[in-house]
Amino acid sequence: MPTWLKVLPEGVELAVLVQPRASRTRVVGEHDGMLKLQLAAPPVDGEANAALVEFLAKRLGLPRRQVTLVAGDAARRKRVFLEGVDAARVEAVMSQTS
């Protein structure tokens, strides 16, 4: 299991490193023990956080209400909780760089 994925009783938690204002939103891969994501959205007025939640929900086929930003609201290093999802599925889907 990768270091960026933590199994919790109700789901999983991701340790994410976000790079805002990228040319497109995509999974880059693992960086410094975290899952690195590039987001096209700028880090202004919560746009990057909203884009992160939207991207993860869509990529994993989850409703947005099951994706919660737990920590790192104003930082590049964030923790995101995914409710009711299997760790193996998250690892398989997020390990595919796009």
Automatic annotation (TrEMBL):
Pfam families in alphabetical order: DUF167
Listed NCBIfam families: DUF167 family protein (TIGR00251)
Family: Belongs to the UPF0235 family.
Protein name: UPF0235 protein POL68_07405
Species of origin: Stigmatella ashevillensis
